[in-house]
Design brief:
about 325 residues
């Protein structure tokens, strides 16, 4: 699979380095170019539809394209420093992600194809992790030792993937239970006046006592995959922000188990695990030089240099301000 696709130029000659706004790629019309690499309209719209927070005063479209521009700059910098992930490595990470039981939920939430997830989410993530790894001087031996020293902490705990319906009174729960098996949990939620998104798949761990009542957690782990509970009556979890508050009201819960996942130790050969561990080792080894603001500072410098050298060229008229708009300054690092 071709990960970096060169921009398609209109005509044999591009005068003064200007790109033709009518150019088309194999992925639809072009929205912008970064270092000659295209950002297609199809990719832009997929990211726009998947959502993402915008800064105050920033339009969603601007925020989305700005993030995509930053990602291309990080990939280009990783290539320049010789640490960019190879196509086979990105494909391996996608394969690991596809093996997760919640992969279809990830696809549904992002609205992206496998190819878009690989190119727009995984490749930029791998590039930024490796830039941080190089900055912190992390070696493979460091990763191996970190896994050995933190195997218990890195192990993913046993969990249940389930859909949950919660009601404030029993009558509503009884009415909802009559619909179980006839309609999806999302449809039942909507029928009962709940947000359909509230019936999406959630992960339940045995230690989630702040999120779910113990009776609900115990029931989730007692059911088999594909089974649905009856009505579970339990008090809402205590509010840890108000420990002296009176007992919470009753909740009436119905849950359906989608998947049961045993505890899974970290696997250094699994690219999905490896990228997560690299980030942790880089943070530990880098000390004060690797902070949550490090990546933002790096991106800001790349963005400023790209603007100065006119490496960002936006074709979509309403977003052209991004050609010259510098990124927001990094947040202060109060934690040191």
């Amino acid at each position: 699979m071709q990960v970096h696709r060169r921009a398609l130029w209109c005509g044999a000659v591009v005068v003064a380095g200007l790109l033709c706004g009518g150019c088309q790629s194999d992925n639809g019309p072009v929205v912008a170019y970064v270092n000659g690499q295209e950002i297609s309209q199809n990719d832009y719209l997929a990211r726009l539809e998947s959502g993402g927070a915008a800064m105050p005063g920033e339009k969603p479209g601007e925020a989305t394209l700005s993030r995509m521009i930053n990602e291309q700059l990080l990939i280009a910098e990783a290539t320049r420093q010789g640490v960019a992930p190879k196509p086979a490595e990105v494909a391996s990470l996608l394969t690991a992600l596809q093996a997760r039981p919640d992969y279809q939920q990830i696809q549904k939430a992002t609205g992206m194809t496998d190819e878009q997830i690989q190119r727009q989410l995984l490749e930029p993530t791998m590039a930024q992790d490796r830039l941080l790894q190089k900055l912190a001087g992390v070696k493979d031996a460091d990763i191996t030792k970190f896994i050995q020293d933190n195997k218990e902490k890195l192990t993913e705990a046993e969990q249940v993937r389930a859909r949950v319906l919660q009601f404030p009174d029993r009558k509503k729960a009884e009415d909802a239970l009559k619909l179980v098996g006839k309609s999806s949990f999302e449809a039942i939620a909507q029928t009962m006046g709940l947000n359909p998104a509230s019936a999406g798949i959630v992960s339940i761990h045995r230690t989630d006592l702040g999120a779910y009542p113990k009776l609900v957690i115990d029931k989730a782990f007692s059911l088999k995959k594909g089974q649905t509970s009856g009505i579970i009556e339990a008090s809402a979890p205590a509010n840890f922000l108000q420990p002296n508050a009176p007992p919470s009201a009753k909740q009436y819960v119905i849950l359906s188990v989608e998947e049961k996942m045993p505890a899974r130790p970290p696997d250094p050969t699994n690219m999905f695990d490896r990228e997560r561990i690299i980030g942790l080792v880089a943070q530990q080894k880098g000390g004060a030089s690797i902070t949550p603001a490090t990546l933002q500072e790096m991106t800001s410098k790349l963005r400023e240099a790209a603007i100065k050298s006119r490496q960002i060229q936006v074709v979509r008229p309403g977003l052209k301000d991004l050609e010259t708009t510098p990124p927001a300054p990094p947040a202060p690092n109060f934690g040191g």
